[in-house]
Design goal:
CATH class of the largest domain: Alpha Beta
Number of strands: 8
Strand order of the largest sheet: 3-2-1-4-5-6-7-8
Largest sheet: 8 strands, mixed
Structural class: alpha/beta
Strand content: 5-15%
Radius of gyration: 22 Å
Shape: elongated
Number of helices: 10
Distance between the termini: 75 Å
CATH topology of the largest domain: Rossmann fold
Helix content: 40-55%
Length: 269
């Protein structure tokens, strides 16, 4: 479905890697006008998509975008914002949107580094190029309206995801990070632990073990930068890591106790 001209947006993407390109394809399909900038030169790929690519960040910021969508890595966000000549913004009321997997961290950075006139929407599409390759219907899109004055622009941006059938979930950045530490961070931690154990398919796998190997393979496709960002910039992640360590220790204790009980019974039999 294409957007009507009244709801079509000019969207600039900062960080035009795999995820930025993934989102851009749907935005282009809906009729939005896109520009992009990135440390890597994606000008040829952008040309194929019909997107104007800027190597010069000043020129990018002068491009009169309604929305600037930040698709950088978690750990590079602060440096990217510091290096942006914000004074070059064509319009100070631009809506800045991030799509990082942590939320309190970008919220605090954007509030601190952007002009007061800039609107801020923190989001997390709970899907990516693999899980969303056949469409976004019923996939979750989390968002927090951190500082919104222009409700029309914000609504039109959110409608990009609503139109595709996403499950739209509004929650605070703090609540997101609490839940993500228990789910996404733990998932990645288990996957990387299995990788350290060199978990691989065998001829006698149960369905449960096949699922674990698939989890390992899935998490290892993501960079260590992403994983470390989930830990370093989510204040709830450290506690969840300690909870996991404690749980593993407790399970081990239960096994050792059972072994002691069984061996003790056998000796007295």
């Amino acid at each position: 479905m294409s957007s009507s001209s009244s709801s079509s947006l000019k969207i600039g993407i900062i960080g035009f890697g795999t995820f930025g390109q993934f989102l851009a394809k749907t935005m282009i399909k809906q009729g939005h006008t896109l520009t992009a900038t990135s440390r890597t030169d994606y000008s040829q790929h952008s040309l194929q998509l019909g997107i104007q690519f800027f190597r010069d960040v000043n020129e990018f910021l002068e491009a009169d975008n309604d929305v600037i969508l930040i698709c950088t890595s978690i750990i590079s966000l602060s440096g990217v914002l510091d290096s942006m000549p914000i004074s070059s913004l064509k319009r100070s009321s631009t809506l800045f949107v991030d799509v990082l997997s942590v939320k309190e961290h970008p919220r605090e950075l954007l509030l601190r580094k952007l002009p007061e006139e800039s609107d801020i929407l923190c989001t997390h599409p709970m899907f990516g190029p693999e899980s969303g390759k056949n469409g976004w219907k019923d996939l979750t899109f989390m968002y927090d309206k951190v500082r919104i004055r222009d409700e029309v622009i914000c609504s039109n941006f959110l409608n990009i995801f609503a139109t595709e059938g996403c499950r739209m979930l509004q929650m605070t950045c703090e609540e997101h990070d609490k839940l993500a530490a228990k789910s996404q961070f733990i998932t990645h931690t288990i996957g990387r632990t299995l990788a350290e154990m060199d978990a691989k398919f065998t001829p006698i796998d149960t369905k449960g073990f096949e699922t674990l190997v698939q989890l390992k393979d899935s998490t290892m496709r993501d960079s260590f930068d992403l994983y470390s960002g989930l830990f370093l910039h989510n204040r709830f992640a450290r506690q969840e890591l300690e909870n996991l360590e404690h749980a593993l220790h407790k399970v081990k204790e239960m096994l050792v106790q059972r072994m002691s009980d069984v061996l003790g019974t056998e000796k007295t039999a």
